[in-house]
Write a structure and sequence with these properties.
SAM-dependent_MTases_sf; EC 2.1.1.163; single chain; methyltransferase; alpha/beta; seven-stranded mixed β-sheet; UbiE/COQ5_MeTrFase; transferase; Rossmann fold
C-alpha cells in the first residue's frame, strides 16, 4: 500500500501530494532550511557541482517546488532551466521568487506531472531532482520518463533522503524525524499530516543499492550513490 499524506482521503497519492504541498507552500522554504539546519542547501550545491564537468545547457528540474534547485543549477551557466511541479501553490511562490530575483528569463516554472512529462524525447542535457522522487506515485514510470527526455549521454542527478544505518546516527535520526520534526512542522505549517508523511515516505523509499538497481532497470548506466552527512541523504547519479 502506498504511503500517502492523508490516510482518510480516497484520492490518489499524486493528488494528495499536490494538496499537501499546496497546504504548506507558504512556509515550505522556511521549514526546509530550518528543519535541516540549512544543510539541505549544501547538499544541493554538492549535487550541482557533480554536473560541472558535463556543462549541461538545457536542464530540467523535476518536482521543482519553489525553485531552489533550479536556482542552484545556474552555477552551471546553462542556457535554460525548466522547473516542473504538480503543486500550483509551490509554483506560484517559485514564480514570484524568480521575478523578484530577475531570473524568470532563464528559469521557466511550469505545471507538470513528473510521470508524464510534456517534453519531446532527447530534449535535456541534465535532469535534476531534489527530495522529490519518493513522492512519485509510480517511481519506475517517473524515472523512465526522465530517461526518455534526456539526450544520449545526458546525466540525471537526484538528491533524496536515506536512512542512516550506524549507531548513534540511526537512533538520533529516527528520534528527530518521528518525534521532533512533525511537532515543529505542525506548529509552523498548520498541516500535521505533511510532516508525519515525511518520515513515513523516507522509510518506504528504496534507498541506496536498491534505488541504483531501479535506475539500471529503467535504462540508466554508470550509476553511483554518494551518501551525505552520515547517510541522512544521498546523491544518485546516472547516465543515459
Amino acid at each position: 500500500m502506498a504511503v500517502v499524506p492523508y490516510k482518510e482521503n480516497q484520492a490518489s497519492k499524486k493528488e494528495q501530494v499536490a494538496e499537501m504541498f499546496n497546504n504548506i507552500s507558504h512556509k515550505y522554504d522556511f521549514l526546509n532550511h530550518f528543519l535541516s539546519l540549512g544543510i539541505d542547501i549544501l547538499w544541493r550545491k554538492k549535487a550541482i557541482r557533480m554536473l560541472k564537468p558535463h556543462q549541461p545547457k538545457q536542464i530540467l528540474d523535476i518536482a521543482t517546488g519553489t525553485g531552489d534547485f533550479a536556482i542552484e543549477a545556474l552555477a552551471l551557466n546553462p542556457d535554460r532551466v525548466v522547473g516542473v511541479d504538480i503543486s500550483a501553490g509551490m509554483l506560484e511562490i517559485g514564480k514570484q521568487k524568480m521575478e523578484k530575483k530577475g531570473l524568470d528569463h532563464i528559469i521557466d516554472m511550469q505545471m507538470g506531472d513528473s510521470e508524464k512529462l510534456l517534453f519531446e524525447d532527447n530534449t535535456f542535457d541534465a535532469v535534476i531532482v531534489s527530495f522529490g522522487v519518493r513522492n512519485f506515485e509510480n517511481l519506475k514510470q517517473g524515472l523512465s520518463d526522465m530517461h526518455r527526455v534526456l539526450r544520449p549521454g545526458g546525466k540525471v542527478v537526484i538528491v533524496e533522503f536515506s536512512q542512516p544505518r550506524t549507531f548513534p546516527m540511526k537512533q538520533l535520526y529516527n528520534f528527530y524525524f518521528k518525534s521532533i520534526l512533525p511537532v515543529i512542522g505542525k506548529m509552523v505549517s498548520k498541516d500535521q499530516s505533511a510532516y508525519t508523511y515525511l518520515p513515513e515516505s523516507v522509510a518506504a523509499f528504496p534507498d541506496g543499492e536498491r534505488f541504483l538497481n531501479i535506475l539500471g532497470e529503467v535504462g540508466f548506466n554508470k550509476t553511483e550513490c554518494k551518501p551525505l552527512t552520515f547517510g541522512i541523504s544521498s546523491i544518485y547519479i546516472g547516465q543515459k
